[in-house]
Amino acid sequence: MKNKKPIISIIGDYFVGKTAIIESYLGYGFKINSITTIGIDIYPLKVKIKKKIYELSIKDTAGQEQYHSLSLNSVRNCQGIILVYSRNDFNSFHNIITNWINSINDLINLKKTPCILVENKNDLELDEQIKEEEINNIINEYNLTFIRSSAKENKNIKEIFEKITQLILEKKQKEEEKRKNTKYKMVDKENDIIEVVEEYNNIGSFSIASSKHINENEKNSC
Ligand SMILES: Nc1nc2c(ncn2[C@@H]2O[C@H](COP(=O)(O)OP(=O)(O)OP(=O)(O)O)[C@@H](O)[C@H]2O)c(=O)[nH]1
Ligand SMILES: [Mg+2]
User: Fold this and answer.
1) What pLDDT is stored for residue 194 in this prediction?
2) Residue range(s) defining the domain that contains residue 148
3) How far is the CA of 15 from the centre of ligand 1 (A)?
4) DSSP letter at 135?
5) Is the dihedral of CA 43, 190, 73, 54 positive or negative?
6) Of 26, 61, 110, 174, which sits with the fewest C-beta atoms within 10 Å of its C-beta?
7) Is residue 21 part of a domain?
8) Type and span of the H or E element at 12
9) Using only C-alpha atoms, what is the Rg of the chain?
10) Residue 184: per-residue pLDDT
11) Distance, CA of 31 to CA of 3 (rounded, Å)
C-alpha cells in the first residue's frame, strides 16, 4: 500500500491571487508585487480539523495562457480542486464557467471530486459585481462549495483549506461505507486512487491507498 498526501490543485486565470491565497495561509504575508507562477509549484501544507492535523500537497498552477494545458493536467491525479477567480475581473469568472470547468470535466468527473470555487480579492470595493444568480448556477450544476476570500486581509483563507480537507474526508467516509456494503474486496493497484485512508498517527496525516474492485472469481488469484 502506498502512503501519499492528498494532492489539491489550485487553478484559475492569471493574477487572480492563487499564490497569494496559499502564501497567506502559510503566513508568508501579502505581496503587492507578486511574481507570476511559472509551471507548477508544490507547497506542503497542514490543516487542523477537530484537534487533528492533516497534511496536504498543494499544486499552485500558473494562470498564464501558455501554461494552461500543464495546469489542467495537474487535476488528473489530485483529490481536490480549488478554482479561483477575482472579484474585480469578470473575465476570470467567465473563464471559470466557459473554459476551466469544461476542460477539467473532460479529464475527470468534477461532480465527484471535492471542489471549491473561490472569489478572491473581496477587500476591493466595486460598483459592479458578478451576479449571484450566475454564481449560483455554476455551483449548483457542479456541486461546488463557494467561498469569498481576501488573501490581502487573510479573510476566509483558513476556511478554504479546512473545507477542502473536510470534503475529501467526507468522500472517503462515503466510499468506505459503500465498500462495507459490497461483496467486493479491495486490492492495491498503483495510480488507481479511489480511497483515502486516514492513519491517525501522532500528527494525524492522511495516507492514500491505491485500489480497485475485484470480483469474487478474481479473489482466488490474489
Ligand atoms: N486587493 C487584493 N489583491 C490581491 C489579493 N490576492 C492577490 N492580490 C494581488 O493580485 C496580484 C496577483 O496575485 P498572485 O497570487 O500572484 O496571482 P496568481 O493567481 O498566482 O497569478 P499567476 O501565478 O500568474 O497565475 C498580486 O499583485 C497580488 O498582490 C487580494 O485578496 N486582494
Ligand atoms: Mg501564482
Assistant:
1) 41
2) 7-170
3) 5
4) H
5) negative
6) 174
7) yes
8) strand 7-12
9) 18
10) 55
11) 35
218 belongs to a structural domain: no
Name the closest-CA residue to atom 9, ligand 1.
17
Structural domain tally of the chain?
1
| Residue 35 grid coordinates | 511574481
Report the predicted TM-score, pTM, of the whole model to 2 decimal places.
0.84
- Nearest atom in ligand 1 to 20's CA: 15
Residue numbers in the chain where pLDDT is lower than 50: 1-3, 191-222
DSSP for residue 64: S
CA distances from 200 to 34, 51, 178 (A): 37, 11, 21
Residue 116, C-alpha cell as written in the block: 471549491
Check which CATH number belongs to the domain holding 69 and give it: 3.40.50.300
Q: Residue 178: its pLDDT value, please?
A: 85
Cβ–Cβ under 8 Å, residues 14 and 64: yes
Angle at which helices 157-180 and 18-25 pack, to 10 degrees? 90
**Residue 200 domain-assigned (yes or no):** no
CA nearest to 112, candidates 174, 50, 162, 27: 174
Q: pLDDT digit string (tens) for 65-119?
A: 999 999 999 999 999 999 999 999 999 999 999 999 999 999 999 999 999 999 9
Q: For residue 189, what are the contacts with CB-CB under 8 A and spacing of at least 6?
A: 210, 211, 212
117-130 b/e (C-beta count within 10 Å ≥ 16 → b): bbbbbbeeeeeeeb
C-alpha–C-alpha distance, residues 41 and 37, integer Å:
7
Assess whether the C-beta atom of 164 lies below 6 angstroms from ligand 1. Answer: no
Spatial distance between the Cα atoms of 100 and 95, rounded to a whole number of angstroms: 6
C-alpha of residue 127 to centroid of ligand 2, in Å = 27
